[in-house]
Design a protein that fits this description.
Layout: E1 20-22, E2 35-40, E3 43-49, E4 52-54, E5 71-76, E6 79-85, E7 96-100, H1 110-128, E8 139-141, E9 148-150, E10 156-157, E11 162-171, E12 174-179, E13 191-194, H2 201-213, E14 216-228, E15 233-244, E16 256-260, H3 275-285
Parallel strand pairs: 2-6, 11-15
Antiparallel strand pairs: 1-5, 2-3, 3-4, 3-7, 5-6, 8-9, 9-10, 11-12, 11-13, 12-16, 14-15
InterPro entries: NAD-cap_RNA_hydrolase_NudC, NADH_PPase-like_N, NudC-like_C, NUDIX_hydrolase-like_dom_sf, NUDIX_hydrolase_CS, NUDIX_hydrolase_dom, Znr_NADH_PPase
Domain Nudix hydrolase: 159-283
Catalytic activity: a 5'-end NAD(+)-phospho-ribonucleoside in mRNA + H2O = a 5'-end phospho-adenosine-phospho-ribonucleoside in mRNA + beta-nicotinamide D-ribonucleotide + 2 H(+)
Length: 288
Amino acid sequence: MRYPLAANLPFNSRAIESCFVRGVPGAPIPEGRPWYAVVTANSLVVEDVQKNYSLLRTLPDSWGVTVSNSLFLGSWFGEPLYAVRIGKDSTLEPLLFAEPFNAVEERLDDSLLTIGGLSQQVLYWDSISRRCAKCGGEMAYLVGTWGKRCLSCSHERYPAVHPCAIVLIRRGDEFLLIRKPEWGEGRYSLVAGFLDFGESLEECAVREVKEETGVDITNVQYVGSQCWPFPSQLMAGFVADYAGGEVVPDVAEIADARWFTRQTLPVSFPPYRSIARWIIERYALNHL
């Protein structure tokens, strides 16, 4: 398999453990020439020198961004790394291009995808936590953590990660996949949905499968997880056994749901960078 363990998947920290050391607000900033992880919409801006992609060393003056209005993330190959967000209409100079995190073609290596995803999450958290949810006061970072405290009422708030269950349903040699309208024609993937109040992740998986396909499942087993920065999710992966019911797609959310086998596969699957593909490869196609 391309990724033997779910922990090795892009966007999970193991993918950058050899080149990145995390920092937090208030931590000492290492000396050295800075790196910049530049995010625009759901894309990472990289420099392309003869297909050798890298983070940026300098920022165009037209962006109006400097170290002082960037977020320090830690050290990248021993030198300081800052996260920067620019508008989607910002001009990209020659050799720069914006690569979507969910691009169909996988051009960026795992380390660039992962540091880009981390930057996306930190920048998103910073943008939605500038005002206190209780009193509207200004929030300031707590030294040594990404949490914030209100300067007016002292309410504390910490980064929110949104859990999502994603599940493969098996019936003998068959496995159930769905297709959403916004996906490319012929592409199928797994049922997935966000955790609701008062649910365990396993209960979330059961509910989402029932709502989207009309099918009942049993023997729900956890198999792995993945950070998913769209903008700040945790995908908890499961496999489950078919327990009954006819496939009746929820037309409000999905375009199709059907059973496949290794002999009758869909036109395309999710990209390798996703836990959806990892689960399909490991528990449907390889039957491990």
